[in-house]
Design goal:
About 75% of the residues lie in helices and about 0% in strands.
Amino acid sequence: MHNTLVTAVMPEDKNSHIIQTIKSYGKNLLGFIRRRVKSDADAEDILQDVWYQFSSVINSEPIEQTGAWLYKVANNKITDKHRKKSETLLDDMVVSSDADEDDTPDFKDILLTEAKTPETEYLRNLFWEQLFFALDELPEKQRQVFIWNELEDMSFAEMADLTGDNVQTLVSRKRYAVLHLRKRLKQLYDEITQY
């Protein structure tokens, strides 16, 4: 009887497994990444990093759920790419000009701390994961305005030229996006701080 555990470590089987995985997940994984980064080039760079990491670990550790593993690694790579934007993004997410929003959570202490402990790393990853989930819940136009403005540094005037929408409409879309994201992140903050 053919033993798949033995053949799984053979180089030719490793290569065919990698090729099959790329065929199975490549297109959707690229789409997942592309919706969360600035450009096609950034998405392709991250995807290459994911495939490199996958090929590096394929024989050294078992991967029980390949799809989940790939998306987790991709999400981590996207998070790393966006870390430099953390401070300005957090300013927009946690600083409120409305008096009735004083209960907006302040993630700055958690996310911008110099301490690198397993707990702070976990909380950082959880924050970004929840932010991306919350972004996915938004209507497409609100999500796009938020990403363009916050993650890609595009001005409202540039967006107006690109979309044909007026600046006030775009500002309004971003405001709705920010309100939704604040609400979702407040739920996360409440869960974290109640323990």
